[in-house]
Amino acid sequence: MFEVLPQLAPDPILGLSVAYREDSNPDKIDLGVGVYKDEKGNTPILNSVAKAQRILLDRETSKTYITPQGNQGYIDGMLSLLLGEQSRVLMANRVAAVQAPGGCGALRILSELLVRCSAKTKVWVSDPTWANHIPLIGSSGLQLETYPYFNKAATGINFDAMLETLKKTEKGDVVLLHGCCHNPTGADLTNAQWDAVLEVAQERGFLPFLDVAYLGFGDGLEEDAYGVRLMAENLPEVIIAASCSKNFGLYRERVGLAAIITENSQTRQIAQGQIQSVARGIYSMPPSYGGALVDIILADEGLKHEWVSEVNAMRNRMQTLRAMLVDKLEENGAQRDFSFLNTQKGMFSFLCITPEQVLEVREKHSVYFVESSRVNIAGINQQNVDTLAKALVSVL
Ligand code: LMR
């Protein structure tokens, strides 16, 4: 039966880890998959998470099923983090939400919910967007369109073109926006640009679909929530997919959240039942472990404080690494100005070099990153930055 299926190329992001592992060059550099790494190249368990694990080990008395909506403490903690402690939509009981298996699980079940509303729904995604958005959203049957976002030649956002396209959307269209730390470009909207997008959403009536996978990695946990809170507080309906993979370092535990802000509390009840039934039809209920850890951290003032410091430390280190790379490129004689990397945010940046140059630096110098020129900034360290800069300069 399966011989009728075509052989697929490796995944454009995950396939890089396999290629990197197989490379015997001792000076190889991995800037592929978006995983935070410390100075030694390890991805350690956060201290706050390690402490929560010990608490959970003592506290958990059963492995019976949890409910389709997941851990309510986790959901409430995450909603406060995303929407703010004083959120009016939370107070008005207008938010339906479920714990989801990772940000991917959240993106998929929200897409399936949109199909239940109308299979003809158009979803606009940024050009470029995270490669996995396309199968996650597109495979549910929704129609994908793109809006201009990043201009490689100008190394920045083409905001006028973005707004112009958003002004052509129709009521009922969905627009996927990266809440912060745009993946793959690292180029984020300013607060004033978010305000302008809100105005267009109000004018045209599109539904914002916010993907928030890097909260805290841009300017701070509060600052990075500007866009999501602006949309939530000022529009009747918004949907949000959030992930704890990066900011809690819980990658393999698959901890996400799907939230639906509805016009009123009656519709909230409908949405809650529908999203749970979507989840039941795909994976029944989310895994418990990671959500239980986040619940423990967010409910304990001391642990939460420690976690916030750990997020701040990761963010600050990534900003230092950006600056280090920019300086090293200059020091090694790069003819181009790479200072735009310092203005980008979060884990990723577009180096704005050609796919041919990306492949050349991979083949000749064993430096691995996505063909679009997306690099994982967290993969840079004091030991490899000089080799990296020299390798990049040699292919420019
Ligand atoms: C990435 O963008 O590298 C991460 O979100 C990992 C993934 O699943 O692609």
TrEMBL record:
Gene Ontology molecular-function annotations: identical protein binding; L-aspartate:2-oxoglutarate aminotransferase activity; L-tyrosine-2-oxoglutarate transaminase activity; pyridoxal phosphate binding
Transmembrane region(s): none
E.C. number(s) listed in UniProt: 2.6.1.-
Alphabetical list of InterPro entries matching this protein: Aminotransferase_I/II_large (IPR004839), Asp_trans (IPR000796), NHTrfase_class1_PyrdxlP-BS (IPR004838), PyrdxlP-dep_Trfase (IPR015424), PyrdxlP-dep_Trfase_major (IPR015421), PyrdxlP-dep_Trfase_small (IPR015422)
Domain Aminotransferase class I/classII large stretches: 27-392
Any one of the GO CC terms: cytosol
Domain of life of the organism encoding this protein: Bacteria
Record keywords, A-Z: Aminotransferase, Pyridoxal phosphate, Transferase
Record keyword Transcription present: no
Alphabetical GO biological process terms: L-phenylalanine biosynthetic process from chorismate via phenylpyruvate
Family per record: Belongs to the class-I pyridoxal-phosphate-dependent aminotransferase family.
Top-level EC class as recorded in UniProt: transferase
Pfam families: Aminotran_1_2
Keyword Electron transport on entry: no
Known cofactor(s): pyridoxal 5'-phosphate
Summary of subunit composition and partner proteins: Homodimer.
Protein name stated in the entry: Aminotransferase
Organism of this sequence: Alteromonas pelagimontana
